[in-house]
Design a protein that fits this description.
The chain has about 70 residues and is mainly α. It contains two helices and no strands. It has one domain. Helices cover about 90% and strands about 0% of the residues. The longest helix is centred in the C-terminal third of the chain and has 39 residues.
Amino acid sequence: MSLHVGKAKLVGSMKDLLVKWEETKQSWDDPVSREMENTVLAPLEPKGRAAVVAMEKMSEVLAKARRECE
């Protein structure tokens, strides 16, 4: 799998997760759900964005390496 495909899958999965979580919150609203949102889901967003940025940078590095090896 290329970095581009992996990045697209990660972005899509994060969007899907957040949509499903919003749907779930409509019927699950108690201290446990709020704790899960705060301790599990909230930290995932910045980590997911950081992973996407890292994948973009790695893609640039690999593209440069390929050009230099030609």
